[in-house]
Amino acid sequence: MLFKVQGIVLKAINFNDWDKILTIYTKQHGKIQAIAKGVRRPKSKNISATQVFSLSEFILYKGKNLYNLNQSETIKSYYPLRDNLEKLSYASYILELTNAGLIEEETNIKIFELLLKTLDIIVEEEKYDQITRAFELKFISYLGYRPHLINCVNCHKDLENNIRFSLINSGALCNECKSIDRYSKKLDIQTLNIMKFLLFTPYEEILNIDINKNILKNIGEIMLSFISKNLDKTNFKSLNFINSLNI
Ligand SMILES: [Zn+2]
After folding, report:
1. How far is the CA of 163 from the centre of ligand 1 (A)?
2. Last residue of some domain: 61, 77, 93?
3. Its Gene Ontology biological processes (predicted)?
4. Closest CA relative to residue 172, chosen from 183, 182, 184
5. Distance 194 CA to ligand 1 centre (A)
6. Cβ contacts of residue 16 below 8 Å, gap of 6+?
7. 158 CA → ligand 1 middle, Å
8. 226 CA distance to ligand 1 centroid (A)?
9. I want to staple 153 with a disulfide (CB 3.0 to 4.6 A). Which of 23, 129, 148, 227 is the partner?
10. Residue 113 Cα, ligand 1 centroid: separation in angstroms?
11. CA 212 to ligand 1 center in whole angstroms
């Protein structure tokens, strides 16, 4: 039986001579795998809609193991992401992280909308690192792993000085509680405040301020270890690439 979904292509792998296996994040059915037969033939009508980053309407039917693509139509290609290597690298990381965090066939409209909004902003704006750090914090929270930052995760007292970030406890520790996790990392109050701001504030407001690059770098390191622990994935190819660009 044919059915229609809207989704964004997170990943595409060449398969056989002319086919591709697509990982599509659909609005209606969450993340799915679909085989797009003949899509690498030069005259295929599905070439554009099955590119990575394409937001498309797909008509699918369920096969034995995978969904099969019948027809597709591009809604938005996000083509301008390819204008600039830095922009493309950050956007690729956003997709790689989304793919790593999602469980197949689990719908999450909030994350679907967050992803599209993030890509829309990366297309238009230049504060890629700032938006990417905000995406990491929002995305991991929408998946159910929100780090506890508003006060001490252990005793709930206000955080002032000598704060630590604990991966095991998923949040910030005050000076008195820091000994409960000897692997916790130092976190200054300014970095903590920026993390809260990025987590709880809409993108429009985040874009209005310029965050110090060193603070963003610190947050990036904290988030990478936090994401790695919660998603059980330590290596992000696109993130290694961003680091190799030295930006
Ligand atoms: Zn405490």
Report:
1. 9
2. 77
3. DNA recombination; double-strand break repair
4. 184
5. 20
6. none
7. 8
8. 20
9. 148
10. 35
11. 28
Domain with residue 222: its CATH number is 1.20.1440.120
In angstroms, what is the span from residue 173 Cα to ligand 1's centroid?
Answer: 5
Q: Which amino acid is at 135?
A: F
Q: What is the CATH number of the domain that holds 29?
A: 2.40.50.140
- The reply to whether 122 and 63 lie within a common domain is no
CA 153 to ligand 1 centroid distance, Å: 7
SS3 59: strand
Instruction: Give the containing element (helix H, strand E) for 15.
Output: strand 3-15
* Contact between residue 117 and residue 203 where contact means Cβ atoms under 8 Å apart: yes
